[in-house]
Amino acid sequence: xxxxxxxxxxxxxxxxxxxxxxxxxxxxxxxxxxEVHLVLRARGHARGALVFAHALxxxxxxxxxxxxxEHRRALQLLERYETAGLDLGDAMVMAMAEARKALILTxxxxxxxxxxxxxxxxxxxxxxxxxxxAP
Length: 135
Known about the structure:
Layout: H1 2-6, H2 9-22, E1 27-29, H3 30-42, H4 46-57, E2 62-64, H5 68-80, H6 88-100, H7 109-114
Parallel strand pairs: 1-2
Helix pairs in contact: 3-4, 3-6, 5-6
């Protein structure tokens, strides 16, 4: 999400095309919304943070809260992968995608490779690492 607001390079173009094509099929969990907002502002992209916030409010993408069961599962993942550096945003994405049988849109491949929904399974990623353009 933050790549869309940086307005630079091939990753920006790729992210914009992808999110534009997916539209309301993109579900943004509340913790991810907050994380994206904070990251963009910290990197000097306050305007981009507001553009993203208004896009969610206007329904370009769906802003959704986790259910109690998804929240519980995210906490289980945080406990299980405590030393892997997994954060609440990533754990919530994993939990919500698992419960909703949804694909995950992330470029944080390190954390999604370091954890697994179950033995012998991997998180279902919409974009594979080799498909993301170099910066």
